[in-house]
Each structure stands twice: as structure tokens, then as C-alpha cells.
Specification:
Number of strands: 0
Largest sheet: none
Structural class: mainly alpha
Strand content: under 5%
Low-confidence stretches: 1-22
Radius of gyration: 21 Å
Helix content: 55-70%
Order of helices and strands: HHHHHHHHH
Shape: elongated
């Protein structure tokens, strides 16, 4: 049985910013995916919930980071090739046999264990590549992810100079579409164009309510 679809509660009018209305259309795509059971695993449900929450965040840096959290919830790092894992295991064995203090050895071994799987950056670029030939901010999906992940690191770690507010705001708008595409997948053409009022709004809501 498909999980209940969270209410959208969109209080929009014809005066709402066009970019936001487009973003709502992507939220609708993801809602259809959720309704149809395409978001059955916990990871994708979490990503959908975080993505939905980004629509109530107005501060650019915060909205960008919420969207990156939704994106990272979708990323599942894979195990590296066996020869890489073997090399990491050798490093772990060497560390354990060293004369380093126990606390240092334990810390190094914990860090080395993570090297058995892909980094978030590597796995994220691989996930982004599933979007094929789509273009975001003039970049292929993997390149756009790389740009966003770099910006995310700058904001989280306070790297100086910090990204310009207007640049983050623009990237967040594009990132909203990017994450929406990943969540909705092949359902990207299943909804009519979104309109904030009138018959277009009703047709959009009916399309979501009628797909299960």
C-alpha cells in the first residue's frame, strides 16, 4: 500500500514569482512519484520530505543547504573496486600494527574504513549522470553537482570569501529543479503546466490526486 501523500498546502496567486511557480511544478512531479510508490525506500522518502520543506525557506544560503541535504539523502556510495579495497585493508592492517598511540590508531582506522566506498562527491556525480543530457546553469548534470557541492562546502565550513548571496540564490533555484528531476525521474512529463489560480491550478491538483 502506498504511503499517504503529505499535503502540499500551496497558498499561491498569480503574483507569485515565476521561478517559484516552476519550482512548485517540480514539487508536484515528486509528489506524483511519491503517490505512485516510486519513493518507497526510506532514503528517497527522507529526500522528498526535506525537498518539500525547502519551499518554506526564504533565506538563500539556508534554502540552498536544505536542498543539498535533500540531494545528499539520495546519494548511496558504492563499494570501490576490489583492488582499491585490498589496498585500504593493507593500510588498515599496517596502521593497527604500528607503534602509534591507541587513540591515534583507532582514529586513523575509522577514517580509512570510509575509503572502502566512494566519496560523496564521486557518488553524487554518478547519480547526477543519470539525468542524461539535461543542462543546469549551462552545465551537464555531473558538472552542476560538482559546482553545488563545492558551494555547499564553502558555506558549511565558512571558507573565505563566502559565495555571493545573489549567486547562491540563483543556484538554489536551479538546484530545486535538479533535485526535483532526480526525485521525479521518468514522471517529468506526467503533470500539466502549473498555474496558481483558475482551471490550470485545478487541473494540476486533479492530476496529483488522480494518480495512485
Amino acid at each position: 500500500m502506498t504511503a499517504a501523500l503529505p499535503p502540499l498546502n500551496l497558498n499561491l496567486t498569480s503574483g507569485s514569482p515565476p521561478g517559484f511557480l516552476q519550482a512548485v511544478w517540480y514539487l508536484g512531479q515528486s509528489a506524483v512519484a511519491y503517490r505512485r510508490g516510486h519513493l518507497v525506500d526510506l532514503r528517497r522518502r527522507l529526500a522528498f520530505a526535506v525537498y518539500s520543506s525547502s519551499f518554506s525557506v526564504t533565506e538563500p544560503d539556508a534554502r540552498f543547504l536544505v536542498l543539498m541535504a535533500a540531494l545528499e539523502a539520495l546519494i548511496e556510495p558504492k563499494q570501490r573496486p576490489s583492488e582499491v579495497v585490498d589496498h585500504v585493508d593493507a593500510l588498515i592492517a599496517s596502521t593497527k600494527a604500528s607503534n602509534l598511540p591507541d587513540a591515534e590508531k583507532a582514529s586513523l582506522v575509522r577514517s580509512l574504513n570510509w575509503l572502502r566506498v566512494q566519496s560523496i562527491g564521486q557518488a553524487g556525480r554518478e547519480l547526477a549522470s543519470t539525468l542524461g543530457e539535461k543542462v543546469y546553469d549551462g552545465r551537464k548534470p555531473a558538472a552542476f553537482f560538482k559546482r553545488c557541492y563545492s558551494t555547499r562546502s564553502d558555506l558549511i565550513h565558512g571558507n573565505i570569501p563566502l559565495p555571493e548571496r545573489q549567486d547562491v540564490d540563483r543556484m538554489a533555484a536551479i538546484l530545486q529543479r535538479f533535485v526535483g528531476d532526480l526525485l521525479s525521474g521518468a514522471l517529468a512529463t506526467d503533470l500539466p503546466p502549473f498555474e496558481p489560480e483558475g482551471p490550470g491550478r485545478q487541473a494540476w491538483e486533479d492530476a496529483i490526486a488522480g494518480l495512485g
